[in-house]
Amino acid sequence: MSATTTPAAGAPPAGDASFGAHLRHWRQHRRLSQLELAHEADVSTRHLSCVETGRALPSRDMVLRLAERLAVPLRERNRLLVAAGYAPMYRERSIDDPALSMARRAVDRLLQAHEPYPALAIDRHWGMVAANALVPRLLEGVAASLLTPPVNVLRLSLHPEGLAPRIVNLRAWRMHLLERLAQQIGATADPALQALHQELSGYAVRPEPDTDAGMAAGQSDALAGIAVPLRLRMGDDTVLSLISTTTVFGTPVDITLQDLAIEAFFPADAATAAALAALAPAAERAVQVGMR
């Protein structure tokens, strides 16, 4: 097992907690003193102290300003507003809501346009929202229980009955995913993500040889210092080498859109590009997996 650990993050205040309790939680989570936050938010330290201890009530503008300086996710900004006595500002809708139809079409187009390479859309807890036609081709042999919606992409990758037995560089890929998850926990303080990190960290990791089987000499060196590839075995003699990118909406004002990300995989070598082209159905359109 790797030494990656979940970052320290205090439990978020209960829903009925005071605004001051919510503010103190996020200030401490961002490791800021009252003086530092007051300077960044352009308020007096005395007034900020009074707000945090409940001796003064913040204006709606101040709530939003503090939330912006603390990089509080939109979902949590609503809780800050409600705790301060104001109406929530940001809506959360299903991705199938008519109001999000343009965003949904944009996601579908991105997934389809990425073929013949795999791409999928995930929510804030790494639940698979949609995927293009290549993704199911890579999941053959995975336990049916892991493919029952809602499908968790990280669990699917690292579970002993998921893709883990076919990932040639499992230790490196596992460490990469756990580090990404830890960074997400640091940004959101989400208890569900902390529980997921603990679960994934407990999965057994098989011993690995010193060099990855099925790769040409020098292939691992080509990616050193650039990206951590996913090396996935397909059949007896094919190893796909994939690098991934993450795409998010740049200016979301809807909670669902802020939580949505597209994970797109690219071939890291010519052999992988050719193998993916051979796997791709000729004219199959994007498929939806675990849509919620």
Report on this structure.
With 292 residues, this protein is an alpha+beta fold. The protein has 13 helices and five strands. The chain has helices at residues 19-29, 34-41, 45-53, 60-69, 74-83, 101-113, 134-138, 153-158, 170-188, 191-201, 219-223, 255-259, 270-279, and strands spanning 119-122, 128-131, 230-234, 238-248, 261-267. A five-stranded antiparallel sheet has the order 2-1-5-4-3. β3 and β4 form a beta hairpin. α9 packs antiparallel against α10. The chain is elongated. It starts with 18 loop residues before the first helix and ends in a 13-residue tail after the last helix. The model is unreliable at 1-8, 210-221 and 285-292 (pLDDT under 50).
Structural class, by secondary structure, is alpha+beta
Strand content: 5-15%
Order of helices and strands: HHHHHHEEHHHHHEEHEH
Q: Residue ranges: pLDDT <50 for 5 or more in a row?
A: 1-8, 210-221, 285-292
Roughly how many Å is the radius of gyration?
A: 22 Å
Report the major sheet. 5 strands, antiparallel
Number of strands: 5
The helical percent reads 40-55%
Q: How is the largest sheet built, in terms of strand order?
A: 2-1-5-4-3
Distance between the termini: 33 Å
Number of helices: 13
Q: What overall geometry do the principal axes of the alpha carbons give?
A: elongated
The overall pLDDT average reads 86
